[in-house]
Amino acid sequence: MLETDAAGLGLSGASPRAAEDYRAAVSLYHALHGDPLSRLEAAIADSPGFVMAHVLKADMLLVGASPEVAAMGADAVKAASGLSATTREQGHVAAAVQIAGGQFAAAGRILEDVSVAEPLDGVALQAGQLMDFMLGDNRMLRDRIARALPAWSPQTPDYHAILGMHAFGLEETGFYDRAEAAGRQAIALEPRNAWAQHAVAHVLEMQDRRADGVAWMRRENLAWQTDSLFAVHNWWHLALFHLGLGQIDEVLALYDGPIFGGGSDMAFDLLDAAALLWRLKLEGCATDDRFQALADAYERRGAYGLQAFDDAHAMMAFVGAGRDDAARDLLTALEAGAAGDGDNAMMTAEVGLPVARALHAFGQGRFAQAVDDLRTVRNRAHRFGGSHAQRDVIDLT
User: Which residues are within 8 A (CB) of 284 and not within 5 positions of it... i.e. 6 or more apart?
Assistant: First the structure.
């Protein structure tokens, strides 16, 4: 008889101890909190044939990671492949194979099939919504979760997780009141749920409720700030609220502190740093030294041409730092990426490369060209991923 996850779904290859570690890892994964990978590693050490432990490890390492970390994710996919697995687990493995190959749409479709068959599979829902986010598919951000929601109840373990995911999908499709209510309900159930915290922040950003946004982020619940895998992005949201209120000193303090004070080399953290500095540049703030440090981090990381949305933000850093050689190298990598395979080739060709060229033109003082290029692409910018709040930078430029 198989061990089960918190929802009662079978876990092939898991001992009771490994299943306990996996359930703990999934709860942390849903909240984007703590160190779920260490619990997965413990599960795998105990039960090397534990399919879903390998799958969840792959899901966490393959997207937005450095090439070295992504290689670890690919190894996890290989470890899961060929193991004895249920039909549900086979779907997860097949989706992970597609993610490793850069086929986000195919992975999302497979995970949709999994969650249609097993709507209580929270890992399928969360991994699938990440694919929707990467692709800028706002309708699926909402509908993937909404379809499964009736199967869940407040008595379902990690109910807060589906509420947080539902909140973000509602926000990205303009249902702001419902999104805010769902996000606040999720936080009431689990204050550490960083995805729900950020979903409410998105609502307040889109409604231009800057003071409410500061209050939401700085209220008595500080659980999103400590030991969170998503803390930098939530600090970024707080910085945007302060920026909208003209409180530049607060913005710079956040940038120099929790946003980039530690000099992270994680793709999502670099992206947030670049997006904030670029907005400050557009406001006329002197940020030259900060751009230099950020450009250094991007050059150390390298690996251009793998994710169009990230690459556009690398261009912001290089332009802000006045590094034309690095900017041209990035354009060359994007041109090669646009001619490659996988979903990123499409995203680069249709949006990423034109945006990068426009930003490069902006940096060279060719403002009319930059505006013309951005006007051409801005109405399809969702096709290279991200959220409305993140893509606002195109219109601002």
Answer: none
Q: Is 33 helix (H, G, I), strand (E, B) or coil?
A: strand
Across the strands, what pairs with 228?
33
**Which single residue is written with the structure tokens 């990426």?**
337
- Indicate if the pLDDT at residue 162 is higher than 80: yes
DSSP-derived secondary structure letter, 155? T
By three-state DSSP, how is residue 4 classified?
Answer: strand
Which of the 8 DSSP states describes residue 12?
Answer: T
Reference 330, options 304, 294, 298, 308; nearest CA is: 304
Domain boundaries, the chain: 1-132, 260-397
Query: In this predicted model, what pLDDT tens digit does every residue of 334-360 receive, in sequence order?
Result: 999 888 888 888 989 999 999 999 999
Radius of gyration of the chain (CA): 21
| CATH number for the domain formed by residue range(s) 1-132 | 1.25.40
Tokens of 385: 């991923």
Beta strands in the chain (DSSP E): 3-4, 10-11
Torsion angle defined by CA atoms of residues 353, 356, 358 and 360, in that order, rounded to the nearest 10 degrees: -130
pLDDT digits (tens, 9 = 90+) for 47-73: 999 999 999 999 999 987 777 888 999
pTM, two decimal places: 0.94
